[in-house]
Write a structure and sequence with these properties.
Chain B: This is ABC transporter substrate-binding protein. Chain B: It holds the Pfam family SBP_bac_5. Chain B: One of its GO terms (biological process) is peptide transport. The complex is a heterodimer of chains A (332) and B (562). Chain A folds into two domains: 63 residues, no CATH class; 196 residues, MetI-like (MetI-like fold, Orthogonal Bundle), CATH 1.10.3720.10. Chain A is built from 14 helices and no strands. Chain B is α+β, with helices and mostly antiparallel strands and 562 residues long. Chain B folds into two domains: 247 residues, Periplasmic binding protein-like II (D-Maltodextrin-Binding Protein, domain 2); 217 residues, Roll (Dipeptide-binding Protein, domain 3), CATH 3.10.105. The interface between A and B is large, with 94 and 82 residues.
Chain lengths: 332, 562
C-alpha cells in the first residue's frame, strides 16, 4: 500500500513537471491560429498556467485530495478528467481482457502441444508465428486486419465500440456485458463484433510471449522428478498433464501476463487509434496531440496504479496455483 | 496466518455466489429502450451517420468556437439571419427582414411568427432580447475569450464596461419586432449575426438548466447542464443524446419545424479522431460521410464512387514575415524580393489540391472590397535578386518556421508547401534555415510571440466581411508581423477601422480596395500565397447536401436511400 502511494506521488511529480516543460501547451492547442497576444494571455491566466510550476502542482494536489482532478481541455473539453477516465477505462479493460483471453486460450494449448512434440511442425510453426507476433508493429497488424477483414471482405465493422444506430442501455460501461445484463442481445452481439478485431490485434503481443513461456516452462517441468514419478506409478496421462505439468508450468505464465499489462496499455494506444476505440489509449494519443494536461495526468497516474495492482493480484494468485507458497505462508 | 486454499465445496460455493451476483446485477440492469427501439425501419427518412474528427466541446454555441461543435449546433439552432446554402450571402432566417436607421445605429428586425423552440415555448421578440441580454451580461469565466470568443471578436466588451461594446440595447417593440441599438456603425452588422455562436436559444430551457452556470475551475472550464445535455433551439433537428462512451451524438427530426421539415429521421455524428480511420469507416459503410477528407485521398474517394464535393475556397494561406528578428525584413524591397521569388502558380498546381487558386491579396475575390488592380508579383527570380541587391542584402539569410502535426483547410500539407517555397527562395539566392515544430508543441507560440522570421499561417473566413480577414491580421499594430516598427502600421490600422465605420456601401467598397492596393504595393507585411478549397465527402446514398464555402452545411434537406 505504501509502495502504491509512493509510486503515485513520484509519478505525479514527474508527469506534472514533464508535461509543462514541453514546448507549446494547451493555450496553443485551444486557440491555434485564432489566438492573439491578448486572448492568449487571458486564457493562460484563466487556466492558471502563468503561476510558478510548484504553485500549480500544490493547487493540483490540493484539488486532487478533494477528488477534483481538473477538467479536460482537448480530448473532451469541459468534462472532468476523472469522469472521462472512468468512462473510458472500461473500454480499455474490455479490450485488454478480450485480448488476454484470446492470447490465453490459443497460446497455452499451443505452447503445451509444441513442448510435448518438440521439433514437430506445430512447434516450428508456433515459434515462427510467435516471432512474427513479437516483431510485427501492432499498428501495422491492426491496420492489416482492418483492411483485409473490414474493408476488403466487409465482415466486421472498421471501428468504434458499437454501431451508432443501435439503441443500447449503458450499465457498467462494458458494452458486451451491458448487452447481456439488459438482455439486449443485438447490442451485445454488435459490441462483440466491434471488439473482435482490435482484441485480436492487441492479442498478438501477449500471445507471442505466453506461447514461448508456456513452451519453455512445460519443457522444464516435463523433466522434473515428480513428473517421472507420477508416470512411473501409472497415473493417467490426463491427470499428469493437468495436475503435474500444466499447473506447475503455469507459474511463470501468470507472472508474464501481469508484466504484460504495461505492454497491453502501450499497444492499446495504437490499437485504439486505428479502430477508433473510445478507450484511455485513444485519450492518451489525442491528449498528447492537444496538450490536455488534466487528462494526461489522470490517465497516466491511474494506468500506473492499475499496473501495480495487477501485479499485486498476480503475486496473490501464486498461492492459488502453487501449493508450496501456501505451505510457506502457513508456516510463517 | 493465511489460508487461501479453495477446497472443492468452497469452489462450488464461490461459483454459486458469482452466479447470484450476476443474477442480481441483471435484475437491476433493466433495458431502457423505448417502445420504438431500433427505429428507422419502415419510416420515411432513415438515419444518416456523419463522421466527426473530434468531440464537440458542448452544445451551447455561444460558449463555443470550434467547427466540431458548430457542425452539430447548426442543425439544432438558427440565428436571426442565415446564409443562403452554397454561398456566403446573407438571407432571412428567424428574422424575415431588417432595416437600419439612417446612421446605422438602430436596427429593426421583423421576426418570423408561429415559431416555437423544441421545448414548446414560443419564439418571439422577448426571447430574442433575452438572448442578447444574456450574451451582454456574461461575467467571470463566461466573459473570457476562451468561452465567449465570438462575442468578444464581434461585439467587444460586456456590461461590466471594462471594454467598449458594440452592443447597446435590445427592445421588444411588439411580439414580432425587435429593435437593436448599437454604440457605433459597423459594416459587419448584421452579417456577423449569421455566425453559429449567435444562434437564438430557448430562454426557458436556458433558465431551467442554468445555461450561464459555467465555471473556470483549476485549469479548465466546466459547462452547464444546459450546454451538456439540454440544448434547445428552433432548428430542423432536436437534440436527443450524447453517448460519450461510444462517441456518438444523436439528433432527431423536429416535427414541429416551421419550414421544410428535415427528411432524415435521425442524424448521428460519430467521433472518429483518426483521419485514415474516418476514410475506412466510410469505405466500409459504417458512416455515410465526413468533412475535410485529406486532398491526398480525393482521387481514390472519387474512384471509389463517393460524392466528393469541393467547396469554393474562403480562406487564405500567407507567408508570414516577422520584421522584429531580421533587419533585412524591415525593408520593403526585401519583402518584395521574397514575393517575386516564390512561384505561386506552380505551388498551387503541384502541391495544393484541385480548385486551389493563387492569392493576389489577403482575402478571396468573393469578399467585399476585393481590388482587381493590386500590384502583382509574378514569379521572377532575376527581379528578386535585383531587388535584394538594391536593398544591400545579396546574401540574405532567413529562418523559416513551418508546423508539423497539423492540417488546416488553407494548409492541408505544411511540409510540401514549405518545401516548395524553400526551393524557390534558394533559387533566388536566399539562404533558408528551416525550423519545424509541432503545431501545439511550440509552433503557434513561437509565431505569436514573434520568435519566427518567416512562417506559414492562414485564416478561414467566418462570414463575408473584409474586416474578418484584414481586420484580424492588421487591425492593431500589435500583431504577429511585428509591423509596429514600420511607419505605416498606424495608418493601416486606422484605415481598416475607418472603412468598417463607413455607412455608404460604395464609399466603403472604395476604401477597402484602396487598403488592398496599399497592402500589396506599399506595405506588403506578409505575402498572400493561396486560397485552398476544403472538401466534404458523402456516399452515393446521400442526396441533397449543398456544400458551403463557409463549411457550414445544413442537413435539413439531406436524405439517404438504402
Amino acid at each position: 500500500m505504501l509502495q502504491l502511494v509512493l509510486v503515485v506521488w513520484v509519478l505525479s511529480v514527474l508527469i506534472f513537471a514533464w508535461l509543462r516543460s514541453l514546448p507549446g501547451g494547451p493555450v496553443s492547442a485551444l486557440l491555434g491560429d485564432r489566438g492573439t497576444a491578448e486572448t492568449r494571455a487571458q486564457l493562460t491566466e484563466a487556466l492558471g498556467l502563468d503561476d510558478p510550476i510548484f504553485v500549480q502542482y500544490l493547487r493540483f494536489v490540493g484539488r486532487a485530495l478533494t477528488g477534483d482532478f481538473g477538467t479536460s481541455t482537448g480530448v473532451s473539453p469541459g468534462k472532468p478528467a476523472m469522469d472521462l477516465f472512468m468512462e473510458r477505462f472500461p473500454a480499455t479493460i474490455e479490450l485488454s481482457i478480450a485480448a488476454v483471453l484470446i492470447a490465453l486460450v490459443t497460446a497455452i494449448p499451443l505452447g503445451y502441444v509444441a513442448a510435448r512434440r518438440r521439433g514437430g511442425w506445430l512447434d516450428n510453426t508456433g515459434i515462427v508465428g510467435s516471432m512474427i507476433g513479437i516483431s510485427i508493429p501492432i499498428f501495422f497488424l491492426a491496420f492489416l486486419l482492418k483492411y483485409l477483414i473490414s474493408i476488403k471482405l466487409g465482415l466486421l465493422p472498421t471501428g468504434g465500440r458499437q454501431s451508432a444506430t443501435i439503441d443500447a442501455t449503458r450499465v457498467t460501461g462494458f458494452f458486451v456485458l451491458d448487452g447481456l445484463l439488459t438482455r439486449e442481445w443485438d447490442a451485445a452481439w454488435d459490441a462483440l463484433r466491434h471488439l473482435f478485431l482490435p482484441a485480436l490485434a492487441l492479442a498478438s503481443i501477449p500471445f507471442a510471449v505466453i506461447f514461448r513461456i508456456t513452451r519453455a516452462s512445460v519443457l522444464d517441468v516435463m523433466d522434473e522428478d515428480y513428473v517421472r514419478t507420477a508416470r512411473s506409478k501409472g497415473l493417467a496421462g490426463r491427470v499428469i498433464r493437468d495436475r503435474h505439468i500444466l499447473r506447475n508450468a503455469m507459474l511463470p505464465v501468470v507472472t508474464t501476463v501481469g508484466l504484460q499489462t504495461g505492454a497491453l496499455l502501450s499497444g492499446a494506444v495504437l490499437t485504439e487509434t486505428v479502430f477508433a476505440w473510445q478507450g484511455i489509449g485513444q485519450a492518451l494519443a489525442i491528449g498528447f496531440e492537444r496538450k490536455d494536461f488534466p487528462v494526461l495526468q489522470v490517465v497516466i497516474i491511474a494506468a500506473a496504479m492499475a499496473y501495480v495492482l495487477v501485479n499485486l493480484l498476480v503475486d496473490l494468485s501464486y498461492a492459488v496455483i502453487d501449493p508450496r507458497i501456501r505451505t510457506a505462508q502457513k508456516g510463517s | 496466518m493465511l489460508q487461501t486454499r479453495v477446497t472443492r465445496p468452497r469452489r462450488i460455493a464461490l461459483i454459486g455466489l458469482a452466479g447470484a451476483v450476476a443474477v442480481s446485477l441483471s435484475a437491476c440492469a433493466e433495458s431502457e429502450r423505448g417502445p420504438d427501439a431500433g427505429g428507422g425501419e419502415g419510416q420515411t427518412g432513415g438515419t444518416l451517420v456523419f463522421g466527426a474528427a473530434g468531440a464537440p466541446s458542448n452544445f451551447d454555441p455561444f460558449f463555443a468556437s470550434d467547427g466540431e461543435t458548430f457542425r452539430v449546433t447548426r442543425q439544432i439552432y438558427e440565428g436571426l439571419v442565415g446564409i443562403t446554402p452554397g454561398t456566403a450571402d446573407l438571407e432571412p432566417e428567424l428574422a424575415t427582414e431588417w432595416t437600419p436607421s439612417p446612421d446605422g445605429l438602430n436596427w429593426t428586425f421583423k421576426l418570423r411568427t408561429g415559431v416555437t423552440f423544441h421545448d414548446g415555448t414560443p419564439f418571439n421578440a422577448d426571447a430574442v432580447c433575452k438572448n442578447f441580454e444574456r450574451w451582454y451580461n456574461q461575467t467571470g469565466a463566461g466573459a473570457t475569450a476562451a468561452l465567449s470568443y465570438y462575442w468578444i471578436e464581434n461585439f467587444g466588451g460586456f456590461s461590466d464596461g471594462k471594454q467598449p461594446s458594440l452592443y447597446k440595447s435590445c427592445t421588444a417593440k411588439d411580439e414580432s419586432t425587435v429593435e437593436l441599438a448599437l454604440t457605433r456603425f459597423t459594416a459587419r452588422f448584421p452579417t456577423m449575426l449569421s455566425q453559429s455562436a449567435f444562434a437564438i436559444q430557448s430562454p426557458t430551457a436556458m433558465e431551467k438548466y442554468k445555461a450561464d452556470d459555467v465555471k473556470a475551475q483549476g485549469d479548465s472550464f466546466i459547462f452547464s447542464e444546459y450546454a451538456r445535455s439540454h440544448p434547445t433551439g428552433t432548428g430542423p433537428f432536436k437534440f436527443v443524446s450524447y453517448d460519450e462512451a461510444n462517441g456518438t451524438i444523436e439528433l432527431a427530426r423536429n416535427d414541429a419545424y416551421y419550414g421544410d421539415k428535415a427528411k432524415l429521421d435521425k442524424l448521428i455524428f460519430r467521433v472518429i479522431p483518426d483521419e485514415t480511420a474516418r476514410k475506412q469507416a466510410l469505405e466500409a459503410g459504417d458512416i455515410d460521410g465526413y468533412d475535410l477528407p485529406s486532398p491526398a485521398d480525393w482521387a481514390s474517394l472519387k474512384e471509389g464512387g463517393y460524392n466528393l464535393m469541393i467547396r469554393d475556397p474562403f480562406n487564405i494561406l500567407y507567408l508570414g514575415i516577422t520584421q522584429k528578428n531580421n533587419d533585412a525584413l524591415k525593408e520593403l524591397k526585401v519583402r518584395q524580393a521574397l514575393a517575386y521569388a516564390i512561384d505561386r502558380e506552380t505551388l498551387v498546381k503541384s502541391v495544393l489540391p484541385e480548385g486551389a487558386e493563387v492569392a493576389k491579396q489577403f482575402y478571396p475575390p468573393t469578399v467585399v472590397g476585393y481590388a482587381n488592380d493590386v500590384m502583382e508579383y509574378p514569379h521572377d527570380p532575376a527581379k528578386a535578386k535585383q531587388l535584394l541587391a538594391e536593398a544591400g542584402y545579396e546574401n540574405l539569410k532567413v529562418k523559416f518556421w513551418w508546423p508539423t502535426q497539423v492540417s488546416r483547410p488553407y494548409m492541408p500539407n505544411p511540409q510540401s508547401i514549405f518545401g516548395a517555397i524553400q526551393e524557390d527562395l534558394q533559387a533566388a539566392g536566399i539562404t533558408v534555415e528551416p525550423v519545424s515544430k509541432p503545431w501545439a508543441g511550440g509552433y503557434v507560440d513561437d509565431v505569436e510571440v514573434a520568435r519566427a522570421e518567416l512562417f506559414l499561417l492562414g485564416w478561414t473566413g467566418d462570414y463575408n466581411s473584409p474586416d474578418n480577414f484584414i481586420g484580424t491580421f492588421f487591425g492593431t499594430t500589435e500583431n504577429q508581423f511585428w509591423t509596429s516598427g514600420s511607419p505605416w502600421a498606424e495608418d493601416l490600422a486606422t484605415a481598416i477601422d475607418a472603412a468598417d465605420a463607413t455607412v455608404d456601401n460604395g464609399e466603403r467598397d472604395a476604401k477597402y480596395q484602396d487598403i488592398n492596393r496599399k497592402l500589396m504595393a506599399e506595405y506588403l507585411p506578409a505575402i498572400p500565397i493561396s486560397h485552398s478549397p476544403p472538401a466534404i465527402v458523402v456516399s452515393s446514398k446521400v442526396q441533397g447536401l449543398v456544400p458551403s464555402p463557409l463549411t457550414q452545411e445544413e442537413f435539413g434537406p439531406v436524405s439517404v436511400t438504402s
